[in-house]
Amino acid sequence: MTTASKTFVAGATGLLGSQIVSALLDKGAPVRALVRPGTEGDKKAALAALEARGLELVEGDVTDPVEKLAAAIGDATTVISAVQGGPELIVDGQVNLVRAAERAGARRFVPSDFAVDITRLEDGDNFMIDWRRQAAAAYDDTSLDVISVLNGAFYEVMIGFMGIVDWEAGTVSHWGDADQPLDITSVADTAAVALDPRAKGTHRFAGEVLSMRQFHQTLERATGRSLALKNLGTADELRAEITRQAAATQNPFDYVGLQYQWCMVTGKAKFDTLDNTKYPQIKPGSLEDFVPGTASNA
Ligand SMILES: NC(=O)c1ccc[n+]([C@@H]2O[C@H](COP(=O)([O-])OP(=O)(O)OC[C@H]3O[C@@H](n4cnc5c(N)ncnc54)[C@H](OP(=O)(O)O)[C@@H]3O)[C@@H](O)[C@H]2O)c1
Predict the structure, then answer these.
(1) Of these four, 71, 111, 145, 286, which has the most CB atoms within 10 Å of its CB?
(2) From ligand 1's centre to the CA of 143, what distance in Å?
């Protein structure tokens, strides 16, 4: 009998990382999660529930010294990063994690990419994606197999964080051409792709490819509500709005949602091809099925 190889997950208390851990446990695979000291409240309770299903926890931080982080990784052969934060984490922390994974003798690294097609963007298009490319350049010499999972935008984010849907006002807002196709995928389907033990290189997976017009129609069908589709301006006007907000705020995360929308509505970060056929076992959930389960669509 062969023993399944262990996966180490950084970011297990997060939106995506928790579902990656859960999907691994569903498969009966051994998984160890890096948890920052002092994790309390809901996150601690969620970890305890995963621990009851077999998750192994180890305290630490991706910015820990390489030796300490390598000891945390231990005998895991795959290291998945689902961390989210600033450049000290996405660039320096992830490079540190790669060095620790090499030291520990791991074989594979999945960086915290999980985005639109980051390979098609240029510096300045989206600062969070710039950091991911900077990290990749810094660990380009690694002996590990690096698997970059690209999923477009999460359904969860299209309906929530991005500020596109206002359930109270009954509006779906968008910039640019309402017929530009966009790649979108649920968090759960993205997590399933991240687990593929045979994967190598960059994988582009979309649960659905929908324009904003189709996104709006899907939301109306799924909720039975009439929602207004509101155009906020052209893609160039969106760029100007990003520049305006960037000059006005101390916090770049204030306008990052607009940067992601710009990358999508211009088609610049659209997947040229999809790797969905490499994952016949993943039957992506549709947006229409997903929407009724979201809490805030009443
Ligand atoms: N394509 C899309 O639409 C989309 C949308 C959202 C996210 N994403 C991507 O998905 C990935 C995960 O994002 P998320 O939204 O799941 O993130 P999240 O919910 O904010 O979770 C971030 C995780 O990183 C951990 N973390 C932060 N700093 C750390 C450190 N120094 N050491 C170790 N762990 C640390 C956090 O731990 P604590 O609990 O201790 O803070 C948490 O577990 C990112 O690459 C993000 O860009 C993609």
Answers:
(1) 111
(2) 25
| Minimal-distance CA residue to ligand 1 atom 10 | 114
* 153 in contact with ligand 1, CB cutoff 6 A: yes
Question: Residue 66 corresponds to which amino acid?
Answer: V
Residue 84 near ligand 1, beta carbon < 6 Å = yes
210 pocket-lining for ligand 1 (C-beta < 6 Å): no
* Rounded mean pLDDT, 42-55: 96
Q: What is the dihedral of CA 218, 221, 227, 233, to 10 degrees?
A: 20
Q: Is 60 in the pocket of ligand 1 (CB under 6 A)?
A: no
224-235 pLDDT, tens per residue? 999 999 999 999
